[in-house]
Amino acid sequence: MKEPLEPLMSQWKTSLALAQSQAQRARFPDMLATCQHIIQTHSDDVDALLNVGTLLLSFGYLTRARECFERVGILAPNDLRPVVNLANLTRDNGDHAQSLRLYADLQALQPNNSVIRRNCLVSQEYDPSVSDAQRLQQARAWGDWAIAQAGGWRSRPLPPLFVGRPLRIGYVSADLCQHTVGLFVKDVLKAHDPTQVKVFAYNAGQVNDWVTDAIRAVCTLRNIAALDDAALAHLIRQDEIDVLVDLSGHTAGSRLTVFAHRPAPVQVTWLGYFATTGLTYIDEALLDDCHAPTGTEAQYIERIIRLPSGRLCYQPVPWAPGEVAPLPCLQIGHITFGCFNNTGKLNDGVFDVWAKVLAAVPDSRLVLKWRTLVDEPLCDSIRSAFAARGIDPERVELRPASFHADVLKEYADIDIALDPFPFTGGLTSCESLWMGVPVVTWPQSRVVSRQTFAFLSAIGLPELAAKDADDYVRIAQSLAADRAKLAALRSNMRSRMQASPLMDVAGFTRQLENTLRQLYAGIVEKETTSTMNVKTILHVGPGHRKNGAQLPPGFQSADWKEIRIDIDPSNEPDILGSMLDMKAVDTGSVDAIYSAHNIEHVYAHEVPVVLGEFLRVLKSDGFALITCPDLQTVCALVAEDKLTDAAYQSPAGAITPLDILYGHGAAVAGGHHYMAHKTGFTQKSMTQALQAAGFQSIAGKRRLRGLDLWMLAAKGPTPESVMRELAGKLFPL
Predict the structure, then answer these.
(1) Chain center to CA of 561
(2) 27-41, 94-108, 184-198: least confident range
(3) What is the C-alpha end-to-end distance of the chain, expressed in Å?
(4) What are phi and psi of 539, to 5 degrees?
């Protein structure tokens, strides 16, 4: 008798939870044994193998993870999940060309998969062979895709004045935890002046730890992982955010696609990404002179704003060693170079230069440390790379991951840090410097290649930045030869950092606040000026932007600004409300109303209420454009016994007279009861209803081909010539 499926599923999930717990406690032999047990007992279970492979990958066991993903590929050849994981694995393995090929294939198969598209962009940053122009082109394509997925182009929400009130700033990130972004941003959020700004943090991540708690203590923290983009955009609008700040770019867990819904008047990107987002709705990218020298503008969709005191500021973690260890070469007699960066940042160019450094400094050693250096095939390939360049592999020590506190202590073994390129260190470089270890770097054209250079410049050590490969070797060799200088740098590095803008959290935060306030004020002024002669049209019940009613061509110009009101928050309206009660819309505030196929969805006794609301919110010279089914024409078809015959084709399928009379039958049957029709009109009855509501001038058209009525109703007395002109612009043929 076969064991039931559910107990088996529960069994591997229980075992997986045990393996995860073992990994978190650094009991890696136990974790591997548990994973092997799952693989053996569930060798044909795709989900079990995928989850085990993902766990192994996250802790650096690349080869074992690859075996799981390749097994899934055999069991489920049409499942793209293992291919995505293999693409990530290949990047971590340093094979960037293969990683990008896999991602290109994946994107061709699933062009609307946001994770695949996002990973493709991030992977380009690791690959030195991808040009700046190619990176910009791919990012721009992503931005166009994101806007299309969000329902197409939309105007900027009108920014309200903030005179006499704090600026409302929202930070969006999946990394508000013990992650590079969380560690950099937590103290900034704490340092914000509550009299000047009100801070919201939108946490898209699944991890909650001490950093998350620290952020929660100083601002309004929203957990948004379960919200889709439409719901998140609605929440941001409800919070009345003035400036929305992206902290993730295209990195893991990013919610950058919500910015394509344009939920805030001003949107910027900062800190967590190192290239253009590609999204035209992002107004600015916050950088600095070191990260973005003149000419960097050509790599960005966004306008670059250069923060005066640097792009970010650093504070050590609480468990960082209190003292800097002595210079190790004075004790062991030889220079030890080191790099604790992601092995995905290694490439042939890096190996070339580092091999020259080792050759130029006899008896020196190189220590590399990262979680993937537990994988023996990867370790063998790194040793082979150095051997092929004439360096004895015994001079290269490869260390796997350890707890963060232990990582920081291991800088006691390092004299000089070597920065990879073009993807240089971020937090890793800051931590190296804090532990007294100078970093040799090579800034190039990419922003991500200039991170360490920016830190060195901030603390007064720009001379450690190389101009080219030969200069990199020269700087490393020169440092290695001057042990007195190394010792002096090591002993005063912390005081140098503490006295620099790099660690001035209060000063940085004031400058960030001032920058965002000035940016917001500038956009308020620009939008106010540009909209002085723009009229407002209230679009009632438009549905979702992707598939809802579009404004008639006569309103599709720069002369009109659309404001959308809808009862369904998933449709992402500007105003959430019913046409029976539009209290959120001020009296006499709009120039026009457009309502397409809404009014037949209320009862006959509610029609005067709806039309009364329309009349109330219109300006004295305003007008309403209303379209609905023409029952006179529909009934002619019924009289011909065509009640269930197709009258016309719609995106939802064939529409019959019965659907027009009572509401789309298929939609109603599917549970969308709001699609039912509760009343109906002829041109005569609609004219009478508009007159009874108080509209002074009315024109109408029966569109026989479309089986619908088009009614134009002006609030005040309007010359016939004007009504005819309006009808000519707005009524369809």
Answers:
(1) 27
(2) 94-108
(3) 71
(4) -95, 110
Q: Give me the pLDDT at residue 683, please.
A: 96
The string of pLDDT tens digits covering residues 241-284 is 999 999 999 999 999 999 999 999 999 999 999 999 999 999 99
CB 200 within 8 A of CB 238: no
pLDDT digits (tens, 9 = 90+) for 64-123: 999 999 999 999 999 999 999 999 999 988 898 899 999 999 999 999 999 999 999 999
Domains and CATH numbers, the chain: 5-149 (1.25.40.10), 167-306 (3.40.50.11380), 329-503 (3.40.50.2000), 533-730 (3.40.50.150)
Angle at 58 between CA 54 and CA 64, to 5 degrees: 60
pTM value is 0.82
DSSP sequence for 272-324: S-SS----TT--EEEE-TTTS-TTGGGG-SSEEEE-TT-S------TTS-SSP
Task: Determine the pLDDT at residue 6.
Answer: 44
CA distance linking residue 117 with residue 114, whole number of Å:
5
DSSP for 51-76 reads HHHHHHHHTT-HHHHHHHHHHHHHH-
Residues 6+ apart with CB under 8 A from 435: 320, 321, 324, 325, 408, 411, 412, 414
> Which is nearest to 556 in space by CA: 535, 531, 585?
535
